[in-house]
Specification:
The complex is a heterotrimer of chains A (about 300), B (about 350) and C (about 400). With about 300 residues, chain A is mainly α. Chain A is built from 15 helices and no strands. Chain A is globular. In chain B, a hairpin with a 5-residue loop joins strand 2 and strand 3. In chain B, about 50% of the residues are buried. Chains in contact: A-B, A-C, B-C.
Chain lengths: ~300, ~350, ~400
């Protein structure tokens, strides 16, 4: 298996065209973020200027209000005054639990689905897909009353279980296709050697499946990380995660300056993702290769 | 795999899905078939800090509660909610079809009905964003494979940014940039030499803005999957194609694309479903004057004001789910066929 | 060990003082409210009532409207106190989830002014502690330059806008919160109240907007929008503030609660505009005698499904949190409706609007449904795609469907 470089060749015109396209894309993808990063060190009157967008670059009002072209007020306000760190901790806890539980539950089901050729397996997959089609806001509104009655509303475990459940259809679909790409001979021969199906799964299949598991984990992670509907409606203020916290900076009507807390918080929230993507880059690629290709 | 073992493996996942998705869906379907009991209203004097006292209506809660206790689900209405003006509007459509001034009038009057207005944008969005995001994702993936290895990590991260930055804020910042005084809005005014150009003011421009945002937001998903797929293009096939004198584009056309074809099904499945449920950009771009979607209609029923219209939201949700099922039918049939083949093999 | 005991004793002493101040012996106070500054001032005060025997928890969230009904439906309710406004109290009233406060007022509320009591059918259902309304903000410098008098009616506003445009000072001198959805509907309600219009047939839930007052309301809104920027259907209160402070607008109809952010030259980002800003009562319209603005209040209600002890504790804690000292210490935070509050510059215009006889936003059970229908169906008219009559017919049709679903119409 040679690398993808051979797809384009080292000095081909195709490569040049692809690189030009990539450059255009990278500009489109990063400029809004860089704009936000730069603007997070300005005051609201500059970053959200109605007078002249160039204020966001030069920081006219920032200089006037703080004496310097850059200010850390947004960060200080978000992290210290409004205790964004608490939300960050909650998010950390939620994404960790959601990702690991999703994968544990999902790999089992995905594996079984890939190894069964009965009709019910097919209908389970189709059912999961239909489940995924239901808009989340409708589902979550239905949870509220039972959760209040059971006295489980407002706490992190509830939000975690709901996020895991809502994410199951995607997880089992993705993992199912990954497992399809692992030859059946592998676990069947293990079972001939006396392993139970579960042992075959745990000792033989999982070790070769790490990339797929990690890729699926990344999507579980992103879902839990960026979720607004579930966390905003099912958590109380003390247990708020980052996204509802950011929404609360925006408020129903914006308080002067608080919108910059939101901007600073968004920039801060992107840093762990950067580390994560760099760290798992190889696995992500290896992972998707294995499964999705076989569809 | 034996049924018993199979059940053991899928039990936790199925239990979660049944408890948190299937049961709620069942209750949503039931809810969509019911409407609230008639409220017993009475006229009373209402006083507030200003304006003094006025005579206003009030719900007689004791009388209403006794009705509720008798039938907690509400009054059975059958498909009434589905067919009313704010949903499928069967009576209104019938009236329009019976008496109209030609096709243009029919289209205009149907578009004036909230459900069809939402459906029009939802479909346009889904069918434009999905293919364009897939094609753009493919080219980005091709491009990334051409980048030197050391740079790939950062390039992948940068390409993923539109997908991973919290849509709540991502869309807000783009919204601000596209305002007439924002960097994009103001630059476009200069480029087109038209100071009256307002991206937010016209329906067409709003649709274009939302669709471009959708493509920008969804391309990274297609990119990641394709990029992974590109890693497994069999080199021997490529080499034999090269020996046969195929140029680069021909290699891509005849080797790479067929190899990635199964991936397209997977990406299309996810993108169709997610795009059909488009909501966040409409809320963040405050675009509801010009563009609404089915998910937005649900959002508006549930969170638009102090009152929540559960039956109406439930009916729109069921219609959305049916819409998704119809959209996915080709992919589902394909899965069914491959499933049957697998069954036949083993 | 000894220090520990002393600290504990001191702590307990403080706790006793604190609860003595609030007058609560025991109970649980659990508050749900919207997430904004003035409310957090109140809830922070309520928190000081916490002691060994008194538990105080607060959940301020922008999603409060969506969780309040299920949260108060269970027994015992998740929250004992709901901080509500004219519109968000309605779902609680409709389902009988809040309790009459009259006996609590008799026992603890001797300092309350009658003006604070929200009464429905002879029962006090909530205690208001702050007020709000949309009113005029205008630039005295621009008006002077254009040679027009400060407007008192919407007809004056139109004339002033024409004069400003004709003088070449500003192309789009007006703004109003016309953002499609909730805001646009609120503008309609304001204007319709000023026109003397009714929303419903007396004694029923039948809509009563398809008439002359309704058409006149829409035509005035449309006429005003001709002097606004082309993206006026995106003007939220926040957007309008930015627009105004950028110096692009001369006259606007903005929320009173945002006055401080506009007239404080140090933080507004445009000291000249802030300096020249005049706050005035909402104008009258169509020869009417009352300002075209709905008055809003924020207040607290006590859940029905809680023990009498918790209800009493919650009522006392909230009275403590809305005592005159709180208003006196934060005079610019809100237009307090607390007895003894000396109005500051920022709240004058809201009070002037109230004094001129403006009406409160209706607390009718089905008003929220009409509001939603207005917000969704008026956009076609505002864009010039429909006549006023067609738009009102659409609103009525859309409202009738939801009102039937909610059980208000048969």
């Amino acid at each position: 298996m040679s690398g993808p470089v051979s797809v384009l060749g080292r000095r081909s015109r195709a490569r040049t065209v692809a690189l030009i396209f990539l450059t255009v894309w990278l500009i489109a993808a990063t400029v809004p973020f860089l704009w936000t990063l730069w603007g997070s060190f300005k005051v609201q009157a500059d970053f959200f200027s109605r007078e002249d967008w160039r204020n966001a670059i030069f920081g006219v009002n920032t200089i006037q209000q703080t004496g310097d072209a850059f200010t850390g007020d947004g960060y200080a306000g978000a992290w210290i005054e409004r205790e964004f760190w608490r939300a960050a901790l909650n998010t950390g806890l939620v994404v960790l639990c959601v990702t690991s539980v999703s994968l544990m539950v999902g790999t089992l089901a995905g594996y079984a689905l890939s190894r069964s050729s009965r009709q019910y397996a097919f209908w389970l997959l189709i059912g999961a897909l239909i489940f995924r089609a239901m808009p989340h806001i409708t589902l979550v509104s239905g949870y509220l009353l039972p959760f209040f009655e059971l006295n489980v509303w407002g706490v992190l475990p509830t939000a975690i279980v709901v996020l895991v459940a809502i994410n199951q259809p995607f997880t089992i679909w993705m993992l199912h296709s990954f497992f399809l790409s692992v030859p059946r001979d592998l676990d069947e021969s293990a079972m001939v050697d006396g392993c139970s199906q579960f042992q075959a799964f745990r000792l033989v299949i999982i070790p070769v499946m790490w990339p797929g598991v990690i890729t699926t984990g990344l999507f579980s992670f992103l879902l839990a990380y960026n979720d607004f509907v579930v966390t905003a409606l099912l958590l109380n203020q003390d247990n708020q995660t980052m996204v509802p916290k950011i929404a609360s900076f925006l408020g129903t009507v914006q308080t002067e300056g608080a919108i910059m807390y939101a901007v600073a918080a968004v920039v801060s929230a992107t840093v762990p993702l950067f580390v994560l993507v760099l760290f798992f880059q190889r696995q992500i690629v290896g992972g998707l290769t294995a499964g999705a290709v076989k569809g | 795999m034996r049924t018993k073992v199979f059940l053991g493996f899928v039990a936790p996942s199925v239990a979660l899905m049944v408890l948190f998705i299937a049961l709620p869906i069942a209750s949503i379907v039931v809810q969509s078939l019911h409407v609230e009991h008639p409220r017993v209203l009475e006229e009373v004097e209402t006083c507030s800090p200003f304006g003094g006292c006025t005579t206003e209506l009030r719900v007689d809660t004791t009388a209403t509660d006794s009705l509720r206790e008798a039938e907690p689900l509400g009054r059975f209405a059958g498909l009434e909610t589905y067919l009313n003006r704010n949903h499928l509007a069967s009576a209104e459509i019938g009236a329009i079809l019976r008496d109209n001034d030609g096709p243009a009038d029919v289209v205009a009057r149907i578009y004036d009905l909230p459900f069809y207005k939402a459906l029009a944008f939802t479909l346009a969005y889904t069918f434009l964003v999905t293919p364009i995001a897939i094609v753009a994702g493919f080219f980005v993936a091709l491009g990334v494979t051409g980048v030197t290895k050391g740079l790939r990590g950062p390039v992948i991260f940068m390409s993923l940014l539109p997908y991973i930055v919290t849509p709540l804020i991502g869309a807000l910042i783009i919204y601000w940039m596209t305002g007439s005084d924002g960097i994009i809005g103001a630059t476009l005014q200069v480029l087109f030499d038209d100071p009256g150009l307002h991206l937010r003011a016209s329906p067409v421009l709003t649709w274009i803005t939302l669709i471009v945002y959708g493509i920008w937001h969804m391309t990274p998903f297609a990119f990641v999957v394709f990029y992974a797929g590109l890693q497994t293009v069999p080199s021997d096939t490529l080499e034999s194609a090269m020996i046969d004198g195929a140029n680069r584009w021909e290699q891509i056309r005849y080797v790479v694309i067929p190899h990635l074809a199964p991936l397209v099904t997977f990406i299309a499945l996810i993108l169709l479903m997610d795009n059909f449920r488009v909501l966040e950009p409409i809320v963040s771009f405050q675009a509801e004057a010009h563009a609404t979607s089915l998910s937005w209609a649900i959002y508006n029923d549930l969170y638009g004001q102090a009152d929540q219209l559960f039956a109406s939201a439930a009916a729109t949700s069921v219609l959305t789910t049916i819409g998704v099922a119809v959209l996915l039918m080709p992919s589902l049939l394909r899965t069914w066929r491959s499933f049957r083949e697998r069954g036949a093999r083993s | 060990m000894k220090t520990f005991t002393i600290t504990a004793a001191v702590g307990m002493a403080f706790a006793t003082i604190a609860s003595a101040e609030c007058g609560i012996e025991a109970g649980s106070v659990r508050i749900l409210g919207n997430d904004f500054d003035a409310i957090s001032i109140v809830t922070d005060e309520a928190r000081t009532c916490a002691s060994d025997d008194v538990e105080v928890t607060v959940n301020l969230t922008t999603e409060h409207k969506n969780i309040q009904v299920p949260a108060l439906s269970i027994d015992p309710a998740e929250y004992t106190v709901a901080i509500v406004a004219n519109n968000s109290i309605v779902p609680l009233l409709n389902d009988g989830l809040i309790r009459p406060l009259d006996d609590l007022i008799a026992r603890y509320g001797e300092d309350l002014s009658p003006q604070q009591m929200i009464r429905v059918g002879g029962e006090t259902v909530a205690i208001a502690f702050m007020g709000n309304a949309q009113h005029l903000y205008f630039r005295s410098d621009v008006l002077e330059e254009a040679g027009v008098e400060p407007p008192e009616t919407y007809e004056d506003v139109l004339a002033a806008a024409e004069a400003i445009r004709a003088a070449g000072i500003q192309e789009h001198p007006l703004a109003a919160t016309n953002a499609a959805g909730w805001y646009l509907a609120a503008e309609f309600v304001n204007m319709h109240l000023g026109m003397g219009g009714d929303f419903f047939e007396a004694g029923t839930a039948e809509p009563a907007i398809e008439n002359e007052a309704g058409v006149a309301t829409l035509e005035m809104m449309k006429a005003l929008s001709e002097y606004m920027g082309p993206d006026f259907l995106n003007y939220t209160a926040d957007e309008m503030k930015a627009l105004y402070l950028a110096g692009d607008v001369a006259i606007m109809n903005q929320w009173g609660s945002m006055a401080g952010a506009h007239i404080d030259g140090e933080t507004s980002g445009n000291a000249d505009v802030s300096e020249a800003t005049v706050l005035a009562a909402a104008p009258t319209v169509g020869g009417g005698s009352i300002p075209a603005a709905a008055l809003w209040w924020d207040g607290f209600a006590i859940a029905a499904n809680v023990s009498d002890e918790d209800a009493a504790a919650s009522f006392q804690a909230m009275l403590h949190a809305t005592r005159p000292e709180v208003a006196a210490a934060n005079p610019n935070a809100a237009t307090w409706l607390i007895p003894g509050f000396e109005p500051t510059e920022t709240s004058q215009a809201v009070l002037a609007t109230a004094r001129a006889g403006a009406l409160a936003y209706p607390m009718t059970p089905q008003m929220g449904l009409l509001h939603t229908a207005l917000g969704a169906e008026l956009t076609d008219f505002m864009q010039g795609n429909e006549t006023a009559e067609e738009a009102l017919a659409d609103v009525a049709a859309s409202y009738r469907v939801s009102a039937r679903e909610a059980g208000f119409l048969q």
